[in-house]
DNA sequence: GTCTAATGAGTTGTAATTAC
DNA sequence: GTAATTACAACTCATTAGAC
């Protein structure tokens, strides 16, 4: 085992599971595992939003990478209540702000609770279903997403994405694609994220992402 | 692995099909910085149309070139659910706005569904070649979109137990962050040190986390 | 007419908020 | 800290309409 070392602050268990990624149960509530499929790396456009947004907008959801999720999940299974230092370690390790980690753990605990709770009750995991639940029968047949996305990509490690410009541009600018921003400003914020990425990757120093307000 | 350098994010399949079509040389980062020139001469007329149509009108249909379709199809067969980066790569590669690609994939999935639905799973619909599987270890399960109208999903048996998710992949150096990081940096730097090997293992390049609030 | 890109309504999981 | 809630992001599915 190449990575025999583990971090001092994190339980070794974690490293193991993370390393082999054995059965970490991400997706607690099974209905559609596929959703978190595409975890997106970085490119937070979130930055600005996150900092300032109390007025009006909430910060945009962080998209964890698979690796981040795996790690988080691994740690979580080992220690649902990490200590401050552990949060810090994770923060550094995953390159995520501390708060995000903390929140993730909160949610994870909640998730877990919810699950076991329903387990007893024999209800669905629906978080949202507390009031007017019951619809599960009526809607039946949800679409089934695929279980596991996963990309062919993998190794090709040498690439270029090199960091650095990661920008502080920020904000989900509905501005999209470099070549064309087509049409409307419907609520599609994903393009911008992508854009940033592509730019970096290709080193296209094209237009900057500006935010429209 | 000659090809993989070019577009790390796309399955090799693509490279093949693309290659035979016309050798695209989009050398991204390392070699020639800043040229996005690619080999794509034409920029769609669609762009213009699309650009203009946003006042209430629906955007005009994109007319994909043959090459674009081939590439899309190739990627689709390999990964019906590309992830963000892959969309980006495609976007850059094909000179199409991200949204268009996303939509194409949605439609492609729909199409495929329709096909299998009409006839049984094993019928020839033309596509359906997904014998891909070149990825890493992940377990046996590949994409499992539903083959039958009836899905096990809602079954009571499926509870929170579960699913293993994936493994992982390598996503291109996560660069990221720079979001707010609360708290002291002292700890994190030390953690950082301690975690160095892990980082390597995970291929997480540690971005600098700065800026605290 | 056919084919299919684009749209929109509806579903789901979950990150982020709020309340406690 | 938990518990409940909200808002988003990614999807499906059904439909509409644009080019042939």
TrEMBL record, chains A, B:
Q: Where is the region Disordered?
A: 163-190
| Location(s) in or outside the cell | Nucleus
Q: Where does this protein bind DNA?
A: 57-116
Homeobox domain ranges (all copies): 55-115
Give the Polar residues compositional bias ranges: 176-190
What is the annotated role of this protein in its UniProt record? Sequence-specific transcription factor which is part of a developmental regulatory system that provides cells with specific positional identities on the anterior-posterior axis.
The name this protein carries in UniProt is: Homeobox domain-containing protein
Q: Which organism is it from?
A: Cyclopterus lumpus (Lumpsucker)
Q: Which residues of the full protein are shown?
A: 94 to 306 of 476
């Amino acid at each position: 085992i190449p990575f025999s070392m583990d971090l001092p602050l994190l339980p070794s268990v974690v490293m193991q599971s993370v390393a082999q990624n054995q059965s970490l149960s991400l997706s607690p509530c099974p209905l559609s595992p596929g959703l978190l499929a595409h975890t997106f790396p970085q490119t937070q456009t979130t930055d600005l939003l996150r900092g300032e947004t109390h007025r009006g907008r909430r910060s945009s959801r962080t998209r964890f990478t698979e690796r981040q999720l795996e790690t988080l999940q691994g740690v979580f299974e080992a220690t649902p209540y990490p200590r401050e230092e552990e949060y810090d370690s994770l923060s550094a390790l995953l390159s995520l702000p501390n708060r995000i980690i903390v929140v993730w753990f909160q949610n994870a605990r909640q998730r877990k609770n919810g699950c076991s709770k329903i387990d007893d009750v024999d209800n669905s995991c629906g978080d949202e279903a507390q009031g007017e639940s019951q619809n599960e029968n009526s809607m039946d047949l949800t679409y089934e997403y695929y279980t596991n996305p996963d990309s062919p990509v993998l190794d090709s490690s040498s690439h270029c994405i090199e960091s650095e410009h990661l920008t502080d541009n920020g904000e989900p600018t509905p501005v999209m694609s470099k070549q064309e921003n087509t049409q409307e400003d419907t609520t599609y914020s994903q393009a911008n994220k992508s854009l940033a990425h592509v730019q970096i990757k290709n080193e296209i120093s094209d237009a900057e992402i500006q935010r429209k307000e």
